[in-house]
Amino acid sequence: MTVTPTPDPAVLRAAMVASLREQDLLHSERVADALATVPRHAFAPRESDLAKVYDTHTTLEPVLFADGSQSSVVSATHIQAIQLEMADVQPGMRVLEIGSGGYNAALIAEVVGPTGAVTTVDIDAGVVERARACLTATGYDRVNVVLADAQYGVPEYAPYDRIIVTVGAADVPQAWLEQLTDTGRIVVPLRFSGITRMIAFDRTGQTLTADNYRLGGFVPMQGDGASAEQLVPITADLGLYVDPQYDVDFDVPALRAALSSAPVDLWAGTPFDMPDELAMFQLTNGGSGMVMLHAAQKAVDEGVVEPAVRHGIPVLVQGGNFAYRIKRESEKFASGYEAGVRAHGPQAQQVGEQMLALVRDWGTDHFRRGAARIVYYPAGTDVTGLAGWRSVKRHGILAISWS
Ligand SMILES: C[S@@+](CC[C@H](N)C(=O)[O-])C[C@H]1O[C@@H](n2cnc3c(N)ncnc32)[C@H](O)[C@@H]1O
Q1: What pLDDT, on a 0 to 100 scale, did the predictor assign at position 372?
Q2: Rounded to whole angstroms, how far apart are CA atoms 174 and 152?
Q3: Rounded to 5 degrees, what are φ and ψ at 231?
Q4: Which candidate, 146, 77, 145, places its Cα nearest to that of 107?
């Protein structure tokens, strides 16, 4: 009989760190050391396959209980590494983690060391209980584990040098700013215009500014800060996600009819790459008709829309016409693809050209990572003279401009 040896978790951790380095996600030894030290398997809600637990892209799924509650999700380490690096946590800092699983709080505790302080908060009593038990069992009982709606922060352990948000937020609540030190940083997966970007905001007075952002989705925040995003169905398999700031009436029957009309394809003569950057550019430069189009797999399989729509893509909607970006193989560009636009509807050419102008503008003038500057102004700030896109949220004004 062959006996498969149980893998040594320390060996798997070392391999995980090596893999994160290969993916260019680790830049500080402190974060690497924390990942090599904390026993991730001791926080796994139900995954017993150690190779999966230490795989950099595996999210550890929760256990569902009979009463409908569930244990916490533990995010994949590639996301945690990105967040920890963006947060630039230093020894001795006071850190608030929003959304608990236990594991990430233990990583932060390793980075801040014995002179720092870590607080983790979750809205779910089961998550809090389990995170506390796991942290105690692994020797990280110095982490404060709090049951609360993080919309209001955790004032009892404030101020914080860093606030690391591990749940999708629709806004930056006032309480987070109030509980942040004067030179503090908030790393938050912020939802705007139907997309989420992980943003590292630094504080200057009452304003937060960032030029460090990247793709990064999380489950949406519950409680008083839950998002009011609306879905406008076009068919059973296709719908528009609309930012609550836009009060737009869509001509759904006309859009449905446009779907079955022959499309017009237009080509930009610019490269296609970094679709997340292009999407953010389109959404923040396309006006109120630029929303997100989502499709079920069925609509893709039936050829109604291009495969990229499955994961959500910006779409310019005007009356009964709509246009979204497409790509085709091209040897002219290093990425191997040229960007283009597919348009449907009676004025497909016109709406398509409008979208094409945006795609070209990005491909010509902003074709790189990090070209956006993101500022979050306090509510009531007079921003009328400022250039760029703005979204008026409940607690402040999100502004995005492009260089
Ligand atoms: C992705 S999980 C957190 C993962 C965790 N940070 C880890 O160690 O990997 C997101 C958590 O956010 C929590 N959450 C959602 N809305 C919240 C809110 N308003 N306040 C506090 N926690 C919230 C959920 O209950 C869930 O446990």
Answers
A1: 96
A2: 8
A3: -105, 125
A4: 77
Best probe residue, ligand 1, of 198, 222, 224, 395 (max atoms within 8 Å of C-beta): 222
The pLDDT confidence band at residue 318, using thresholds 50, 70 and 90, is very high
Atom 24 of ligand 1, residue of closest alpha carbon: 99
Q: Which of 71, 72, 75, 100 is an active site residue?
A: 75
Rg (alpha carbons) of the chain, rounded to whole number: 23
pLDDT of 2 > 70? The answer is no
pTM, entire model: 0.93
Q: Which pLDDT score, from 0 to 100, does residue 240 have?
A: 93
Note if 75 is an active site residue. Answer: yes
Contacts of 223 by beta carbon, 8 Å cutoff, 6+ apart = 123, 149, 150, 151
Tens of pLDDT along 232-246?
A: 999 999 999 887 777
- CA of 71 from ligand 1 middle (Å) equals 10
Q: 115-153, pLDDT tens digit by residue?
A: 999 999 999 998 999 999 999 999 999 999 999 999 999
Distance 99 CA to ligand 1 centre (A): 3
User: Rounded distance, CA 272 to CA 178, Å?
Assistant: 42
Structure tokens, 205 = 């007075």
How far is Cα 332 from Cα 340, in angstroms, rounded to an integer?
Answer: 14
The CA distance from 333 to 330, in Å, is: 6
Model pLDDT, residue 61 = 78
| Strand ranges for 255-336 from DSSP E | 264-271, 290-295, 313-318, 321-329
Asked if residues 234 and 256 have their Cβ atoms less than 8 Å apart, the reply is yes
189 neighbors 169 (Cβ within 8 angstroms): yes
Distance 167 CA to ligand 1 centre (A): 5
In the prediction, which pLDDT does 70 show? 64
What one-letter code names the amino acid at 214? R
Element (H, E) at 373: strand 372-378
Q: Is 99 in the pocket of ligand 1 (CB under 6 A)?
A: yes
Rounded Cα distance, 359 and 42, in Å: 47
- Report whether pLDDT(339) > 60: yes
Tokens describing residue 209: 């500014």
Residue 14 pLDDT exceeds 90: yes
